[in-house]
Write the structure tokens for this entry.
Amino acid sequence: MSPEQPARTAGDLITRAQNTWCPGCGNFSIEHMMKSAIAELSEEEGIPIENFVLLGGIGCHGKLVDYLNVNSFYGIHGRSIPAATGIRLANPDVKVICHVGDGDIYAEGLDHLIFAAKRNSDITVVVHDNRVYGLTTGQYTPTSPTGFKGRSTPGGITEHPINPLEVMLAAGATHIGRGYTKKVRHLKDLFKEAIMHRGFSFIDVLQICATYFNLTDYYNEHAYEMGEGEVETGRFESALEKIREWDYDREAPIALGTFYSVKKPIYEEHFQSLTAGKPDRRAFVQKVLQERR
């Protein structure tokens, strides 16, 4: 950014695109807290706005990349994480943030999610977990509770939901958290912490779907912010015990906050060591592409 250009504020990051989310949708909270997190990190850490990259998947959550004036990319259903990994490999200076849905990433894209965590790719994954396919009007997802009655299962489902935090802990994620769209300041802090973590960061956001599965009263009654020292975030066993406190199905307190955060070598470092000293293949690839035109 040149000296003549004033720094962009949080308000400048909202585009003029018409917002089509339903009234009461939790995506509004995620949008505005992500906007604030990016603006604050830009000011506090000196990260240029153009160094943030947002990726979206398929679902209501994906519209967020239209509404925020930040570099962005649309991935097909469940496949935004491979694109995020590639962007991060190509440019180590950028902060790559994947916005995905529970159906999008826990169903179609679960393999990509697990392998990104396993590799400790230096990206942030924010899951808009409304526990329903809202865009396609109410089918169940991998985190829908037992008995959920949707458009495709009017009699209720008999299977149990997955606990995505436990899956990510087992897969090797180095930063794991959970937020709730009715606790906006807490959510913003979770975003900032995850984005600045060096390694694979995962935030499951309990996001209200006001139209097809409104869990506001349930979450308001059960969700609480963890206090300092309530979980030892550097210990796998402590994180696992706290993560298992609620399994996305039974009646139990729902902890919000950071469950696990450790430092480990990132995937990009390993990848660069494999290619160090080898010829740059970009010129060869460009030559091949030009010859085929």
